Amino acid sequence: MLIHEISRKIGITARAIRFYEQKGLLSPAKIKENGYRTYTEQDAWRLQTIISLREVGMTLDDIRQTLNQSDSSSQEEFIYALQLQRSMLFRQWTGMKQMIDTMDRMIHAAKVNQTLPTEQLYELAGHNKAMRDLRDSWRDHWDFDAKASQFDRQLKDENLSPNAAYEAALNLIARLVSPLIGKKGLDVGTATGNLAGKLQQLGASMSAIDQSKQMLKLCESKYPQIELKLGNVLAIPFMDGHFDIVVSSFALHHLTQPQRTLAWDEMLRVLKPGGRICLADYMLSDASEQSTYIAKIIASGANKLPMMHEEVELYPIHTDLIAWMKQHASQVASHRINELIYIVYAQK
């Protein structure tokens, strides 16, 4: 095809096609005799892909990277590149929602005060920026991609305490959120999918998210029917009110305290009214236990806390989570598995 032919076929101008060529996104062959560009069906597919990715807001650099993954003939890498962009779009979308909410509150404040409430507007704007920075603050200090291949084996090692109670915690979550048949569920921070797979086997239609590409790859190999999305709990890549059930096991202690509050809010956001949320994790019973627990670890001769990292606060405080859930949900209940592991259940 010549340029005017592919222009008609795709529905874009010849000028746009030349622009993408100049940016290195398209490299058609040239006819030796006259130098005219000639386009193949592969070029047409590439142009359609470029247009589609531009429509969803991807930058030219991101499109180039995605197309390079496609050119490498690795479907897995191509899908990962698209998943990464989807996750970024959801982070932008949640940020835009926050901005709209802030604007509405500013408008309301201006109406109520009958004047421009400068101090309040400044406070709202500051809060909006803080929330945006918080959504962007997640860091994988543990390198979960590297740990993925050993994850399940380590969980089965009964000598690893407190992981001996792992299966008991998953079973209790399954009982608490039942009945599951016909329900749509989300597992947040799914890792290799142990909890999501259990709930799916009990009748739920499960989706799951994780920020680790390799964890998701292993999850897919174990449970191919689960819908998997790349993303993290600070900007869950699903629309509001999408799920009947939201669960998470042993993921939230990887967050800082401000991140945890945002995470709880995000999980309720994607939960339907009347939906059920159930979280299992390492927790300290209350704030006073922090110093005694650290002293106990030191006395035991351990050189680090189980599953902790120096840049993340100590385990979540159980009473903090209960108080937050009682403020934002109903029918809040708690179960203690052992000294460190709690399960908290609530209904939206």
UniProtKB/TrEMBL annotation:
It holds the Pfam family Methyltransf_11. Keywords: DNA-binding, Methyltransferase, Repressor, Transcription, Transcription regulation, Transferase. One of its GO terms (molecular function) is DNA binding. PROSITE patterns: HTH_MERR_2 (PS50937). The keyword Methyltransferase applies. CDD domains: AdoMet_MTases, HTH_TipAL-Mta. Residues 1-69 form the HTH merR-type domain. GO terms for biological process: methylation. InterPro entries: DNA-bd_dom_put_sf (IPR009061), MerR-type_HTH_dom (IPR000551), MerR_fam (IPR047057), Methyltransf_11 (IPR013216), SAM-dependent_MTases_sf (IPR029063). This is Methyltransferase domain-containing protein.
